Amino acid sequence: MFPRLLLCFLLLLSPVFAQDTKLGEGADLQVFGRGAAPGQFELLRDITFDAQGNLYALDGGEFQKDVKIGNFRVQKFDAMGQFVSEFSVWDEALGDKNFPQRLAVANSGVVFVTQPKADIVQKFSPEGKPLRSISVPYALAIATMKNGVAVIASRNDVVNGKWTWLGGDEIIMLPDTQRFTLDQRLALEKRLDNIQDLEVDKTGNFYVLAAVNQIYKFNPDGKLLGVIGAGANTRNADGSEPLHSVAVNSKGDIYSMTWGNPGLLTRYDAALKTVTQREGQFHWADPWSVHSGYVPLAIDPQDHLWVAATNRQDPNGPNFKSYHVSPAISRLENDYLDTDKNGTTRRSMALLGFKPQLQIKLPYSISYEPKQPINCDFVVAAANRRLNEISVAWHVYDVFKNEWGKGAFKVPLKDGEEAKTNFTFTPPRFGWFTVEAEISGNGERLIGIGAHGGVTPKYANMPILGEGDSVGGWEDAPRQMFVGLPMMRLHPGKGVEKFDKDLQLAEKWGAFVFAQLTDNKNNLNLEYTRPIVEKFKGRVKFWELMNEPNFSLSPEDYVKAAQPVYDMIHQLDPAAQVLGPAVCGMDLGWHERFYKAGGKTTCDILSMHDYEGHESIDPVHWQWKIPALRKLMAQHGDDKKEIWQTERAITGVRGDNFLGPAQAVRVTLHRDLLESLGISPLHNAHYYLNEGGYGPVPTYLWSNSGPHPGALALRTREAMTKGKKFAGTLDFGPTGNKMFIGLRYDGADGSTIILRNLGTSQMPSLVFSTNAPFTLRDEFGNAEEEILIRGFVRGWKDSRRLTQ
Question: What is the 3-state secondary structure (H, E, C) of 22-49?
Answer without folding.
Answer: CCCCCEEEEEECECCCCCCECCEEEEEE
